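Protein modeling request. Please complete all fields; requests missing the sequence field cannot be processed.
Requester role: graduate student
Desired output: 3D structure, token encoding
Chains: 1
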Amino acid sequence: MDSLNITLIIRLLTPLLIFTVIIIAGLIVENRLKKIATSIETRQKLGQYSFVLKSFNGIIFIWSIVSAIALILPMIDLPNSLNNLIETILVVVALAAATILASRLAVSTIQAYSIKNESTVSLSSLFEYLTKVLIFSTGFLIIIQSIGIEITALITAFGVGSLSIGLAFQNTLSNLISGVNIILARKIRVGDYIRIKQGEEGYVIDVELRYTIVKDIYNNITVMPNSQVINGSFKNYTLEDPSMLLPIEIGISYDSNLEKVEQITLQIAKNILETIEGGNKEYQPFMRYEKFDQFAIKFTVYLKINEYFDRLIITHEFIKKLYQTYQQENIKIAYPITNNFLNPEIT
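Delivered output (347 residues):
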């Protein structure tokens, strides 16, 4: 009798013990991966690959539960129908976790690669969304195929339904396709400063399902349909090189010494570029006299800034310093003068 009780207790405790051991092992492995990911984040070369370990967060625990149940299932006397149902559920859960892992790895890999190489596709929310849709759709088809559902009829029905959906949502699909073109053409990237034909300008902060989101220098958000951006002309100030020339037009009096004006102006321009944040310190500014105007000799000074937004502070500081120095050197900045001639015979 005692031996029977011991045997029964062992039969009951063995599955529970196996389940507990596997779950604990899964938690230990997952916790260890978290610590390793945190430790390599600060390393210059390995830090960019820490997302691989982070992607397994929660997945190891789910797989450990599935493995534990799969191991102890043969030890438990269950009806065949219930046993088959549990096995099917385990397969679905395991494949779903694998799909989530694949989605995390794909998105993180693209993000890391786009940061490493600026010429590649930037990760906008639209590109992230499309990547997830592709992976989850593939995972869904694999799951329903694995549980014995024929997917041929489902794909056929989906194709017929897609035609109806396409006709009903032409504008939405137009913006979606335009958004994909924006990303793949790589003429507009997240972080670029753009100005479209209609006049809106600012930094691109995201390319979404239907819209391109732009923030101007005043922190105002402009939401533009993707089709409007892709179908019109636009100017991208940071596509190849964010630095750019900054021309500043000036007019001086006809009484001015042009050699002296050129020397002082270029000296001030160089000093501004070297001392003010936003100026290109290595650049040698230059100026060109352009024409004899009605009231002044016109010329343009060319400075170089690191990005489009820096034009504000560089122009501000340059004009202040130039005006102060011109006053000290008695160089007159021209302005319109009107001479009134009165006939003394008219009373």
